[in-house]
Amino acid sequence: MRNLRFHRAARTSVLGAAALIASFALTACQEDNPPPYDALASASPDSTAKSPAANSGVSGDKDKETAAPSTGGDEDTAGSDKGSGSGSSGSGSGDGASAGKPQDDDGVVRLACTGANTKLTMTAVQRPVNHMLLTMTNTGSKACNAYAYPYLRFGEAQSVPNTFEDSKPQAVATIDPGQSVYAGVMTSAADGSGTNGYDTKDLSVSFQSRDGGSTGSAVKVPLARSVYVDSSLSVTYWQMSMDDALQY
């Protein structure tokens, strides 16, 4: 009986040892031959979702920006955008500087000619008779527009002179710095048909704006001698040449 128990125990030990050896062999086989990458991916979805290859760089950048916002770079960019914005609104100017100023058809901003940016002189001429020439020279640093015609006031006159409507030019007379425009002035009728005549040495000139109103302050223009004026007193529109100003 003892021999039978001994043989059974020995047999059990042999079987256990064989099972243990088989287990070690299977483990070694698995380590030498790991499953493919796709199998790992399907077996571990959570780790795959967190992998950098599965996430886009955009979300990563957002995380970085939230964790460590930029300072100097963002401020510089904002300043640049503000600068370009203010440049765009100027326009107009450019552009803040040009806001509210009249613009010609070519889009160039030009100031109205006034006593602040011009110099006026009045001279007598031989032809036509009873005529004088008013010259306006741009003394500023920018071009200006001589709108319509000058408002003249000789002595204590209560109204502006008549205007030679035929002298109206097709375009506004523009004066570049250092250049001049002209207006012809008929002081009295050559045939003596004028009325309410008087002599004066006082002359003041006012300027028109784009919309036809007056702009700037009146300017006193010295006269070399006393001038006789009557109801025939008339003035031309501003002209670019002397000849055009004196043909009326």
Topology:
Elements: H1 2-32, H2 37-43, H3 45-49, H4 57-67, H5 72-90, E1 111-112, E2 118-124, E3 131-138, E4 144-146, E5 151-154, E6 162-163, E7 173-175, E8 180-186, E9 198-200, E10 203-208, E11 214-220, E12 227-229, E13 234-235, H6 242-245
Parallel strand pairs: 1-4, 6-13
Antiparallel strand pairs: 2-3, 3-8, 4-7, 5-10, 8-13, 9-12, 10-11
The CATH architecture of the domain at 111-245 would be Sandwich
Indicate the overall shape.
globular
Low-confidence stretches: 1-7, 24-101
Q: Structural class of the helices, strands and pairings?
A: alpha+beta
Q: Write down how many β-strands occur, each being a DSSP E stretch of 2 or more residues.
A: 13
Query: What can be said about the biggest beta sheet?
Result: 5 strands, mixed
Proportion of residues in helical segments: 25-40%
Average of the residue pLDDT scores:
72
Question: What is the CATH domain class of the domain at 111-245?
Answer: Mainly Beta
The span between the termini is 157 Å
Q: What is the chain-wise order of helices and strands?
A: HHHHHEEEEEEEEEEEEEH
Task: Walk me through what this model shows.
With 248 residues, the protein is an alpha+beta fold. It has a domain at 111-245: Immunoglobulin-like (Sandwich), CATH 2.60.40. The protein is 31% helix and 23% strand. The protein has six helices and 13 strands. The protein has helices spanning 2-32, 37-43, 45-49, 57-67, 72-90, 242-245; strands spanning 111-112, 118-124, 131-138, 144-146, 151-154, 162-163, 173-175, 180-186, 198-200, 203-208, 214-220, 227-229, 234-235. The protein has a five-stranded mixed sheet. The protein has a three-stranded mixed sheet with strand order 1-4-7, with no helix packed on it. Strand 2 (118-124) and strand 3 form a beta hairpin. The radius of gyration is 49 Å and the shape is globular. The termini are far apart. Residues 1-7 and 24-101 have low confidence and may be disordered.
